[in-house]
């Protein structure tokens, strides 16, 4: 396998995790969670969702740390046997490339609505796919290094545009806190947990981490989830503060709408939505590449062939799946479906696997 | 080795012409000379909807400034208004293609003015749907309601000015007077329309000159224009909400009947809802600090403690008068809550609010409201007289 020489550090692992988590959620989380909660307390749901994701993430890490030199695709066969393990691997692989397809299509939808009106969808998607293929063809290390460049750009620009919107922020839109009790908040927890999809990458990532860093994997998950948590809370608070609960519910892409709702004359730029879209597209790209890589890597482990074959073979598959949803509602449903699959695959399964592994005493301390 | 080198060169050479195919650059670019920038839009109701777009094109901007420089050498204006009628908004706008040679481009549209007739006959949520849906129109553009015809608002006698942009500049004045409301942007409008709350929109009138004049009351249930408030009543609203950043209050000295003008430096208000069983009532506490901006009373010195106390008292009376005036109109005549009482109730008593929110406007008209004003005069400018 190609793991041997390709290693990443703790901070690179954090950056990969953060970049994986941040994706479509930034644009849609305020509306999706508000549809369930219907009070301004959404930010509490997001907070709870983040905490749940952290717990799930720590369990995944504990499981993977039992087999520090192996990825999920390899060690699941040791825990539950060859065939069942292979079946699980296939499920996880499908999950990864479905996410890749979903991200690509969402990117295409938003881009053709706000940026490239009239450009055909395939023309937006194809270059995106090709560049992604080019990146992952040289392995996890180049992916991590590119992510390290993208990460600070995202943080700086995001904070900048988010705080520029303070001019139209109204605290009354966020009050009262817990006015209708905790029940509405709990209704939104599932939706907001789904915005934190991503810790599952630790199933593979630990095997890629440097030997001395593997012990810090729990820290990777905690830090890697705290950063998106802060991003999401800022997003939800600013969006609701400016557009009000009722206003957010009717907007397809509330966060872009927020950026379009103010102009700041006098600065070099008056309008800031393109900044948000730029970092957002970069974040989609990172999520797309890492899931694409994870899927191709899984196939190569499963079928014991060179990973390159699968990288090229998956490309048309991802394209076809991305083009399947007929309209934007089907796309959103597709996203829901992936989320539900993730809850089962990565919420429940790791606990069971960890339990079986402990019970059977399978361990691999290489 | 050598051959390889040559081969590589050949292929690289081939790449050059091929790359040209991909470097067509601004593939769907639009030349600015060919665009008609829409600066503002007005909507009127005649028999059908009349949409008027204010276009700025490369020709009008040129002629506008030239006319200005040569002092009336040409009568052409800096803008060009094009009207079209139809049943819905988008088809009407599209029909303008039939008479305008420029490609309409609305990314820089700043203001949408709707006429009185239009606003009182259409549910605004239906009639403004296009403006909330279209990607090219930004939610940062603002809404105004015209008394009489809206298309008149987009006209001016000064050839160099663009009326739509003037309106935007004028509304910035809300920082220095309590007679102009803060702008109602489409970003806020969406939330207001969705929440079924009544709200105010700045009203504007044209009698040759365009002038801000009071506010339009939009009723939450029907989402139609209910009526207008005058400037004095807007001042009352501003005092109730405490959102004002400046403004003047005129009061009359009791003995001499001369004017004392109080200039607001800061304004704070608290609307405190009280719920007692089924009875809802409100207390408004208004606090303001300011200075004496102008006074006509000859017999008194502004530096005199006695006088300051007296001026504070009379100013308080005037503010109370403003507040009571507008409350009476809202409760008795319009029966709509546009001053944010419902919002305070929602925040302080969310559970009570859930019960009453559906017919809040009705309930509001019978709610007792008390008002407390405290004015503090901090200084009297550069003259102690």
Question: How would you characterize this protein structure?
Answer:
The complex is a heterodimer of chains A (366) and B (385). Chain A is an all-alpha fold. Chain A has a single domain (10-358), classed as Amino acid/polyamine transporter I, CATH 1.20.1740.10. Chain A is 74% helix and 0% strand. Chain A is built from 15 helices and no strands. Chain A has helices spanning 10-21, 25-37, 42-65, 72-80, 82-115, 121-136, 139-164, 183-187, 189-194, 202-208, 217-249, 254-260, 273-303, 307-322, 328-360. The radius of gyration of chain A is 20 Å and the shape is globular. The model of chain A has no long low-confidence stretch (mean pLDDT 89). By secondary structure, chain B is an alpha/beta fold. Chain B folds into 2 domains: 32-229, no CATH class; 231-379, 2-Layer Sandwich (GMP Synthetase, Chain A, domain 3). Helix content of chain B is 35%, strand content 30%. Chain B is built from 13 helices and 14 strands. Chain B has helices at 2-22, 58-69, 89-95, 116-121, 124-127, 129-133, 163-171, 186-194, 231-241, 305-334, 341-348, 350-356, 360-364; strands at residues 35-45, 49-56, 80-86, 103-105, 111-115, 142-146, 184-185, 199-207, 209-218, 225-229, 248-252, 259-276, 279-295, 369-379. The longest helix of chain B has 30 residues, at 305-334. Chain B is elongated. The interface between A and B is medium-sized, with 30 and 23 residues.
């Amino acid at each position: 396998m190609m793991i041997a020489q390709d290693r990443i550090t703790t901070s690179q692992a954090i950056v990969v995790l953060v970049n994986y988590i941040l994706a479509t959620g930034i644009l849609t989380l305020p509306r999706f969670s508000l549809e369930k909660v219907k009070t301004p307390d959404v930010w509490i749901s997001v907070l709870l969702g983040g905490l749940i994701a952290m717990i799930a993430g720590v369990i995944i890490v504990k499981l993977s740390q039992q087999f520090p030199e192996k990825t999920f695709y390899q060690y699941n066969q040791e825990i539950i046997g060859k065939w069942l393990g292979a079946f699980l691997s296939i499920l996880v692989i499908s999950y990864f490339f479905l996410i890749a397809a979903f991200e690509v299509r969402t990117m295409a939808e938003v881009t053709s609505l706000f940026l490239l009106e009239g450009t055909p969808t395939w023309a937006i998607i194809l270059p995106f796919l090709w560049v992604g293929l080019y990146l992952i063809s040289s392995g996890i290390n180049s992916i991590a290094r590119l992510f390290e460049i993208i990460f600070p750009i995202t943080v700086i620009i995001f904070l900048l545009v988010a705080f520029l919107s303070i001019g139209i922020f109204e605290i009354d839109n966020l009050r009262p806190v817990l006015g209708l009790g905790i029940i509405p908040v709990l209704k939104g927890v599932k939706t907001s947990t789904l915005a934190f999809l991503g810790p599952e990458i630790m199933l593979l990532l630990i095997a890629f981490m440097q030997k001395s860093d593997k012990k810090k994997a729990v820290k990777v998950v905690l830090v890697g989830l705290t950063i998106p948590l802060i991003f999401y809370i800022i997003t939800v608070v600013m969006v609701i503060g400016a557009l009000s609960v009722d206003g957010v519910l009717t907007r397809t892409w509330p966060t872009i709408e927020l950026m379009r709702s103010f102009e700041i004359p006098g600065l070099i730029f008056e309008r800031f939505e393109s900044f948000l879209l730029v970092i957002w597209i970069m974040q989609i790209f990172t999520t797309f590449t890492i899931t694409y890589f994870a899927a191709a890597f899984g196939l190569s482990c499963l079928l014991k062939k060179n990973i390159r074959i699968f990288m090229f073979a998956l490309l048309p598959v991802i394209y076809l799946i991305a083009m399947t949803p007929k309209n934007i509602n089907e796309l959103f449903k597709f996203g829901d479906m992936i989320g539900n699959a993730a809850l089962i695959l990565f919420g429940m399964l790791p606990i069971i696997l960890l339990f079986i592994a402990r019970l059977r005493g399978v361990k691999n301390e290489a | 080795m050598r051959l390889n080198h040559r081969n590589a060169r050949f292929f690289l050479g081939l790449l050059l012409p091929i790359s040209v195919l991909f470097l067509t650059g601004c593939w769907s670019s639009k030349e600015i000379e060919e665009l008609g920038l829409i600066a503002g839009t007005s909507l009127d109701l005649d028999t059908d909807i009349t949409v008027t777009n204010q276009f700025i094109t490369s020709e009008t901007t040129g002629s506008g400034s030239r006319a200005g420089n040569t002092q009336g050498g040409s009568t052409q204006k800096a803008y060009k208004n094009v009207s079209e009628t139809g049943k819905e908004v988008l088809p009407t706008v599209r029909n303008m293609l039939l008479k305008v040679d420029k490609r309409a481009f609305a990314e820089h549209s700043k203001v949408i003015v709707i006429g009185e007739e239009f606003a009182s006959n259409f549910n605004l949520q239906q009639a403004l749907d296009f403006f909330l849906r279209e990607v090219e129109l930004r939610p940062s553009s603002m809404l105004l309601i015209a008394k009489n015809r809206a298309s008149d608002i987009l006209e001016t006698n000064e050839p160099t000015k663009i009326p739509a942009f003037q309106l935007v500049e004028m509304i910035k004045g809300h920082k220095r007077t309590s007679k102009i409301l803060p702008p109602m942007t489409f970003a806020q409008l969406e939330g207001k329309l969705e929440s079924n709350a009544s709200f105010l929109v700045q009203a504007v009138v044209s009698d040759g000159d365009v002038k801000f004049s009071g506010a339009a009351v939009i009723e939450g249930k029907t989402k139609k224009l209910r009526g207008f408030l005058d400037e004095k009543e807007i001042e009352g609203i501003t005092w109730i909400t405490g959102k004002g950043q400046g403004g003047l209050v005129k009061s009359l000295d009791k003995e001499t009947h001369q004017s004392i003008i109080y200039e607001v430096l800061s304004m704070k208000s608290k609307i405190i809802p009280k719920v007692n069983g089924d009875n809802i009532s409100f207390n408004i506490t208004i606090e303001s600090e300011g200075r004496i901006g102008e006074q006509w009373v000859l017999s008194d010195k502004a530096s005199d403690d006695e006088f300051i106390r007296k001026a504070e008292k009379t100013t308080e009376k005037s503010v109370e008068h403003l507040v009571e005036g507008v409350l009476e109109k809202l409760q008795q005549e319009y029966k709509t809550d546009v001053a944010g009482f419902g919002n305070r109730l929602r925040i302080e008593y969310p559970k009570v609010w859930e019960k009453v929110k559906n017919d809040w406007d009705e309930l509001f008209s019978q709610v007792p409201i008390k008002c407390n004003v405290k004015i503090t005069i901090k200084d009297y400018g550069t003259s102690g007289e």
